[in-house]
Write a structure and sequence with these properties.
This protein has about 350 residues and is of the alpha+beta class.
């Protein structure tokens, strides 16, 4: 019998699950990062400190192992129970404690509760690694799905999505570094774990660029070791003003060109929804530094260094098109613009709310 205090369900919602199925890579992403999260939480439960690569011994890992149950019929929900085949007398109690910490963390992320977060995991080093792992569970910006974590009775503990990644960034990276950080895309050439340095080939200059990362980001390198990487940090320029290295790396990700989805935006007094979700196929520009989204029929063309920035640019451009074309009088538009207006009206539904006053 499964103890309810060690049981969770990862409920995936959004267009991806309309047919009650889920792409395997999304399920792997959630479970792989959830397991890493519980490994790290397990270190706190057992009173251990974080070492260089923060790996649990096999005897401890079994206590916090995620055991998948049969998916729930009629939706895409993956029930899991925390705790494997450990014979340790205290294993069920420790697994239950880890489960509660995970629930509390997810609530903090949904509510953006910084103060409680520090109380849930007091050790800053463990907390930062745990948050990076939870960030890995989240959907990429524009992917169109969200994750609802539910308890053993099916009651929602917390609902998170791509928007939650921004909050995690704010928690793990100092504000001044976050504001000054830049993202470059390059081809992975080498990793020097002893020096905590990775080397990429920067396509813009055709030169290799060294990127220096902190210890807590080392886990990201084990998961992201393929061809093109996006590295975010403080850019170091040579005497000619050409980028030559990146210091204080804050993020390392594979370039994600999976389909991009748009459903809804809220901008000040405007609420705009797509009658059917819009789908985009992201492409890299010739320099490999910008992710581009295009829809010629709707006059959409946006680009930015990361999916997160592209999502912001897409919202802003769609809002602009709606306000300047869809809501404009026909007399103020030429024939081509009137055609764009009709296509926008067929694609979106918009509501303008009165501005709130003090």
């Amino acid at each position: 019998m499964i103890e309810p205090d060690r049981a969770l369900t990862f409920h995936i919602e959004g267009p991806l699950t309309d047919a009650h199925t889920l792409p395997a890579n999304v399920l792997v992403q959630i479970l792989e990062n959830a397991q890493r999260t519980f490994d790290l939480i397990g270190m706190q439960v057992e009173g251990k400190t974080v070492k260089a690569r923060a790996r649990l011994a096999k005897s401890s890992a079994e206590k916090f192992q995620l055991i998948c149950q049969l998916p729930v019929h009629g939706c895409y929900a993956m029930p899991v129970v925390i705790g494997g085949g450990s014979t340790d007398l205290f294993a069920p109690e420790q697994a239950a404690a880890a489960t509660q910490v995970f629930k509390d963390l997810m609530v903090c992320i949904q509510r953006q509760d910084r103060d409680r977060m520090a109380n849930v995991i007091p050790d800053g080093s463990i907390r930062k690694r745990v948050l990076e792992s939870i960030k890995g569970m989240l959907p990429q910006f524009g992917s169109g799905w969200r994750l609802d974590v539910r308890d053993s009775t099916g009651v929602s503990v917390a609902s998170v999505g791509d928007w939650s990644a921004s909050f995690i960034d704010e928690l793990t990276v100092p504000a001044e570094e976050l504001a000054a950080a830049q993202t470059v895309t390059g081809q992975l050439r080498n990793i020097d774990f002893a020096a905590r340095k990775l080397t990429i080939l920067y396509p813009v200059t055709g030169r290799e660029m060294d990127c220096f990362y902190p210890e807590e980001l080392e886990d990201l390198l084990f998961k992201n070791r393929r061809d093109f990487l996006q590295v975010t940090g403080m850019m170091i320029l040579d005497d000619s003003g050409v980028p030559k290295a990146i210091d204080d790396v804050t993020d390392i990700r594979e370039v994600d060109l999976s389909p991009f989805s748009f459903s809804r935006l809220t901008r000040e007094t405007l609420v705009l929804s797509a009658k059917l979700p819009l789908k985009f196929v992201p492409v890299l520009d010739e320099s490999h530094q910008y992710i581009c989204l295009r829809d010629e029929s709707l006059g959409i063309e946006v680009f930015a260094e990361t999916r997160q920035k592209v999502a912001v640019e897409l919202d802003e451009q769609i809002a602009m098109l709606w306000l300047e074309y869809a809501l404009a009088d026909n007399d103020s538009l030429d024939q081509m613009a009137q055609g764009l207006k009709q296509r926008l009206l067929l694609t979106f539904e918009g509501v303008i709310h009165a501005a709130q006053t003090g």
